[in-house]
Specification:
Radius of gyration: 21 Å
CATH topology of the largest domain: Aminopeptidase
Structural class: alpha+beta
CATH architecture of the largest domain: 3-Layer(aba) Sandwich
Distance between the termini: 33 Å
Order of helices and strands: HHEEEEEHEHEHHEHHEEEHEHEH
Strand content: 15-25%
Shape: globular
Number of domains: 2
Helix content: 25-40%
Strand order of the largest sheet: 1-4-5-6-13-7-12-11-10-9-8
CATH superfamily of the largest domain: Gcn5-related N-acetyltransferase (GNAT)
Number of helices: 11
Number of strands: 13
Length: 327
Amino acid sequence: MTPPAPSISRTDRADYDTFLATARTRTVFAESWWLDLVAPGGWQPNLMRDSKGVTRAAWPLVTRAESAGMVATGAGYTPFLGPQLPDGVPGADRVSSDVGLLDDLAAQLAGHAHVEAACAPELDYWTPLAWHDFTQTTRTTWRIRANRTEGELRASLRTERRRNLASAEGAGLVVSEAGVDELLTACAATFERQGSGVPRAELLGRIATEALERGRGHVLAVHDATGALASAGLFVFDDRLTWNLANGHLDVDGAKGAPTLLQWHAILAAQERGTGFDFEGSMIRPIERFVRGFGGEPHAYSVVRRSSPAWSKVVARKRLVKRLLRR
């Protein structure tokens, strides 16, 4: 039987937190408190130290034991969880440094049955992982950079978003800070229209509660003139970026523009904090069209994965069983 993932020592946690504070590829999703929420007792920092014991890089991953070996992946409501690399001046020297660090990080994970991670756009060179049999898929998120004026933001809106925003403002919809209950109500309404429930609603509620308590996120809600809830969303942030993590809307008469108004005010709030805004992009066509309408810029990011032959066999068996059960 494969042994369970070891717990994180106090020294490793402290070293990880210290290193992450200045890592170039850091996000709020890689912070210890976040990972403790989404994977309590189930994540590892996978530190890479030099000969003097100094942490040079890390690759936080959620780890579990399977029959084929250890499996390391991301987690729910955690869009990015890739290698954490030190800051440096862009150019050939930085890439050369990244090559060595990524090579060593991948070597540390060589014994795992499966590794899969979505890396933040700041990880812009993944070739060393290919040397360790990782494959890569490119996906896209949309971002609005920091330090833009409201006038510049309005001018960047595409026609449909501009019309939706004008409609919402003309209809008297109001945006305000809100609580977790309104967030979950709005998300539940969206998923109910799709014939399902909010994925891991309890976890989303805990993330929202913790983010609000830590001052690392806020919930915004849109109400109509009667006070009826029309839309709500959770936006989490660090010192560089604000992410659109979860949102939903209800079918309220005269509130068609509520989702646009919600995102617009979240973008303005991000600018006031001095951060950029990441729509936490989707490859789903209508969602992609919606976020693209706010006039941001596309940023490519990598999803990398590597599987051992044993894990590939496990996955193939599971797929076969599913096909047989559907007959």
